[in-house]
Amino acid sequence: MIIIGEKINATRKSIAAALEARDTGRIIKTAVEQVEAGADYLDVNGGDPRAGREVQNMVWLMEIVQSNTDVPVAVDSADPEAVRTGLSMAKGKCVLNSISLESHRLEPMLPMVAEHECMVIALLMSDEGTPCGVDDRLKRTEALIDKLTAAGKTPDEIIVDPCFLPISADPASGRGVIDAIAGIHRRWPDVHVGGGCSNISFGLPKRKYVNFALLTQAIYHGMDVGIIDPCMPGILAAIYAAEAVAGKDEFCMNYVTAERKGRLP
Amino acid sequence: MIIIGEKINATRKSIAAALEARDTGRIIKTAVEQVEAGADYLDVNGGDPRAGREVQNMVWLMEIVQSNTDVPVAVDSADPEAVRTGLSMAKGKCVLNSISLESHRLEPMLPMVAEHECMVIALLMSDEGTPCGVDDRLKRTEALIDKLTAAGKTPDEIIVDPCFLPISADPASGRGVIDAIAGIHRRWPDVHVGGGCSNISFGLPKRKYVNFALLTQAIYHGMDVGIIDPCMPGILAAIYAAEAVAGKDEFCMNYVTAERKGRLP
């Protein structure tokens, strides 16, 4: 699985405080600890409602993260100007997190996707809102893949985020998204599928168990990108074990290597 | 999921020692702690190679377990005489663990299955050995279901154990057994599927992660009986979370109740 470390995100209180105080040390620590835990990419989100501030935050975060780690970033914003700034600063092949069918994202960001060599997360949101069930997700996936390939992306540069919705609100949400992942993986085997799935457990106690269960079942069906906190105890163990059982880890080499690296607590 | 507590088994050193010393307290403790943790049935295995000894062990264990708990037992033996003894002593509707296509089990035990009101675990072993892949498992399931229904069992009295084989020896073992579970569940929706799955992780480090992953993925595909150690920290949390995500726990009631009962560590 491709692990995108999610922790440098202004929706987290400690990161919002670090952004406000321009606390470089906190950002370095949060970047380095995720890479040491196993992150392949680092998500960078400096969201801020104040005019112009998110672009400034993106510049500040990108400089710190990229000068203190060697993994590429995932430029994470809903603000096209912040995305443009992030993409222009990115070293190596970064991820754009994310484009969607929402016109306020699609129209300004599609040209950027075409210009930059980057992977792109295609979130299945549209102007009609969140997707519902399997068929709607497959239709939206097709629409986004069509637009992204027309913009020059290859299938393996596209990561479809199927929209993980809380099972506490609708018990069918879990099977809906997992069966959609299976359908997307079957129809577009070279396209990646995944994203941030912790929303699945919103409103439930001891959310990590629900998140681990979702990851484990979704991996069986083709999920291969996770936007997660790789420092959370047990999460990488759950992922490696899920891949081993699902036959996605030849001779369990990744699982055994993770044990040797001390990543199975 | 129907939880069969696996701990009273002579292959465990502490139970073998308790059997040898006729240590009643140890057996009571092992029975009660499993029921408190959430076991629906208690497996009772007093295996011993010495002539006549296993039958004596079964009598001793059955008396202790049944007079100190209120859940039914799973009479667990490969020795037809020990099975006959266990079934004759069982209060309530017990489980026979297990019959198979192996002639040394099938021939003596099938008449017992017909005589006693019990559920029965149908292990997919035959005189040719372990099953291989999905089709072989479906064929063996059909053969066993035919024999058991002819002996008077209803589909929901049958628990098919698909044979969980180590992924360390064959990386295809995990998908093989999970896809077989899906196939059995689809074709015989009233038949239960499951069993003891910890063999899946044989030869690997930190086996619990692999066992949890197998349980989580197999539950998605229809596994609804687990022969497990319900006292193992996190195992019931993994099971309840897996059922909630897989849409098998309406409004997450079991998951939330488990939290209230302190079963999510």
Please outline what is shown here.
2 copies of one chain form a homodimer. The first copy, chain A, has 265 residues and is of the alpha/beta class.
Task: Give an overview in words.
- The structure is a homodimer of 265-residue chains.
- Chain A has 265 residues and is of the alpha/beta class.
- The first copy, chain A, contains 10 helices and 8 strands.
- Chain A has helices at residues 13-21, 24-37, 53-68, 80-89, 103-115, 133-150, 173-187, 207-220, 235-245, 253-260, and strands at residues 2-5, 41-44, 73-76, 94-100, 118-123, 158-161, 192-195, 225-228.
- Chain A has an 8-stranded parallel beta barrel with strand order 1-2-3-4-5-6-7-8, surrounded by 6 helices.
- In chain A, helix 4 links the parallel strand 3 and strand 4 (94-100).
- The radius of gyration of chain A is 18 Å and the shape is globular.
- Chain A starts with a strand and ends in a 5-residue tail after the last helix.
- The mean pLDDT of chain A is 97.
- The interface between A and B is large, with 37 and 37 residues.
